[in-house]
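Below is a filled-in request sheet from our internal design queue. Each sheet records the structural input a requester submitted and the sequence that came back. We keep these sheets so that new team members can see what a complete request looks like end to end.

REQUESTER: design group, bay 2
PRIORITY: normal
MODE: inverse folding
CHAIN LENGTH: 549
BACKBONE (tokenized):
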């Protein structure tokens, strides 16, 4: 049976990885099977500990009791931002953060090899909006924003601004600079791409009748204009069709962009979110162009770690899974936590709780969840490869972000791009591959099941086959491959999610105003800025509530 590599990848990534591979591995011409000598392993978020929530009878009853002022459940960016804000506004409050993983960071996790740190998830922050004083203040405290120019524009640490060259696209066998398809693209398609980019630029500069930007980050600051918000009811694919956008190059570019930020293509994204993606970013800097991004070898773990560092002395309890929330005596809330290391449970009595967990966890923990929120999360594969050779090719040399036109994957980041030194031509390189796995909105659990059932060997075969299409022969020079599967990557802003009633309802405090929710699932767009502001919103509600009582 002959299956070309492109077809193999498309089928395998469509959720058939394990079954397809089981039958065809080694007999597919062009697919590059993983070598048994490869160094590496398959990891993932602590699904085993997390899945205990579904089987609470397996968790031992609490044998200890503790008391604190605020419990934060979840040490992703939202939970860490809440902890820092509580420390900033009310340093006398005793906080305790429970995190089921051995380390905080959530999706902004990182690892390292002998050469460099690398991201396991979130890896960059576009230049923030100058009006986002809270975010700028944090970046200044973290030493990432180093000052302000006389014009008032922020100056960023040069080592954090993504160095040139930033992006390249393998199109028609040639690496072109930038990700918008250009090289060899017919004039009619180029004109359509230009028309789309001009339209989103117009929207980027437009304010609604309420004086607010039509699209803004955090997204709750966007205009409440009904006509614009109604765009949330239709899919981006339908909007494109209705506006006469047919170019396959434009469609590919948009699908790629949405899969990269939301995990799903234009057909599964609302038109409001699809336009917000392009029209909400307004960042500027004194020492970088407006489209610059901030990035670090460890990706956004650098930001998460700074949030942790600036969060005060409150205890962070790793390997601790919250498995219950209940009314306690004296108006307190009780959080039940199981320690995966000591295998003991503790009852934590507290005045206030920040639930900074994804909705599928929060709805298990809340005694009476009221909202019918149903976020779609695509599974993701992230692969960190050590390659004994330079990923070159005709055209633009290696960039920070490297993408293949038409690929079902999302390309790779050069994890050593920000290193302040030269490289020998044949020196090993560390590449971080990203792959949002296709998900059927009608049956999202199926993609997750496939993802969890696929083996290291299955995934590696996919990644090596993709690498070989980008750089023929390079797959044979991969020395090590560390893989990570996110069962629940990030929330997709599907039609109706962002401005539908369920999201608003889910954000309401619970247990008489003592439990506040904070997570990017409650935003609908999973980016650092949203997570950061989710945390601030919850922390401020607690501090304001305390001041009022
Ligand atoms: C592969 C990938 C790439 C991404 N790239 C980018 C990027 O480049 N830039 C960007 O801005 N964003 C990116 N994102 C989005 C990223 O998800 C957000 O930016 C942000 O990190 C989400 O933070 P959060 O706190 O809302 O959620 P999470 O990161 O989901 O944090 C939730 C935390 O709660 C913990 N938890 C869950 N249940 C329990 C429990 N019962 N008890 C205790 N703890 C619990 C989890 O372990 C986790 O640490 C990416 C996401 C993925 C998956």
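RETURNED SEQUENCE:
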């Amino acid at each position: 049976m002959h299956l070309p590599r492109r077809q193999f990848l498309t089928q395998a990534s469509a959720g058939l990885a394990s079954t397809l591979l089981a039958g065809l591995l080694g007999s597919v011409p062009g697919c590059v099977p993983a070598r048994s000598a490869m160094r590496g392993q398959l990891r993932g978020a602590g699904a085993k500990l997390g899945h205990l929530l579904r089987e609470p009878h397996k968790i031992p009853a609490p044998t200890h009791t503790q008391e604190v002022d605020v419990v934060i459940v979840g040490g992703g960016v939202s939970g860490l931002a809440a902890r820092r804000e509580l420390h900033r506004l009310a340093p006398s409050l005793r906080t305790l953060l429970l995190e089921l993983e051995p380390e905080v960071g959530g999706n902004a996790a990182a690892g390292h090899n002998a050469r460099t740190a690398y991201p396991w998830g979130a890896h960059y922050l576009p230049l923030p909006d100058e009006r986002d004083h809270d975010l700028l203040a944090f970046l200044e405290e973290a030493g990432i924003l180093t000052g302000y120019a006389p014009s008032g524009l922020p100056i960023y640490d040069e080592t954090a601004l993504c160095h040139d060259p930033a992006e390249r696209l393998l199109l028609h066998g040639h690496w072109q600079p930038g990700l918008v398809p250009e090289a060899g693209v017919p004039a009619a398609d180029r004109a359509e791409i230009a028309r789309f980019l001009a339209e989103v630029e117009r929207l980027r500069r437009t304010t609604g009748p309420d004086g607010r930007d039509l699209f803004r980050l955090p997204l709750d600051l966007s205009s409440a204009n009904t006509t614009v918000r109604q765009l949330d009811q239709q899919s981006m694919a339908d909007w494109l069709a209705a506006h006469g956008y047919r170019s396959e190059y434009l469609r590919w570019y948009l699908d790629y962009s949405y899969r990269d930020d939301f995990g799903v293509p234009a057909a599964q994204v609302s038109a409001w979110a699809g336009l917000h993606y392009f029209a909400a970013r307004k960042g500027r800097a004194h020492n970088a162009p407006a489209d610059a991004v901030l990035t670090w070898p460890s990706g956004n773990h650098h930001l998460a770690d700074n949030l942790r560092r600036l969060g005060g002395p409150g205890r962070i309890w790793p390997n601790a899974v919250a498995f219950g929330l209940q009314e306690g005596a004296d108006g307190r809330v009780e959080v039940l936590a199981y320690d995966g290391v000591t295998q003991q449970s503790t009852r934590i009595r507290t005045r206030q709780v920040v639930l900074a967990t994804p909705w599928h966890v929060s709805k298990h923990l809340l005694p009476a969840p009221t909202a019918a929120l149903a976020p779609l999360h695509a599974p993701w594969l992230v692969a960190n490869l050590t390659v004994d050779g330079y990923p070159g090719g005709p055209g633009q040399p290696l960039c920070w972000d490297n993408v293949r036109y038409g690929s079902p994957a999302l390309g790779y980041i050069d994890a050593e791009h920000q290193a302040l030194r030269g490289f020998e031509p044949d020196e090993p390189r560390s590449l971080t591959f990203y792959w949002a796995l296709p998900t059927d909105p009608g049956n999202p659990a199926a993609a997750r099941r496939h993802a969890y059932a696929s083996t290291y060997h299955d995934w590696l075969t996919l990644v090596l086959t993709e690498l070989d299409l980008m750089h023929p022969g390079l797959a044979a020079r991969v020395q090590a491959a560390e893989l990570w599967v996110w069962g629940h990557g990030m929330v997709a802003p599907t039609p109706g999610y962002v401005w539908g009633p369920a999201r608003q309802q889910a954000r309401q405090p619970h247990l008489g105003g003592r439990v506040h929710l904070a997570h990017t699932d409650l935003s609908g767009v999973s980016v650092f800025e949203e997570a950061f502001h989710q945390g601030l919103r919850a922390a401020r509600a607690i501090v304001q509530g305390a001041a009022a009582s």
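SHEET NOTES:
- The mean pLDDT is 93.
- The pocket of flavin-adenine dinucleotide is lined by residues 50, 73-79, 98-101, 106-108, 121-125, 300, 321-322, 356-358, 361, 380, 382, 486, 489-490, 519-520, 526-528, 531 (CB under 6 Å).
FILED BY: M.R.
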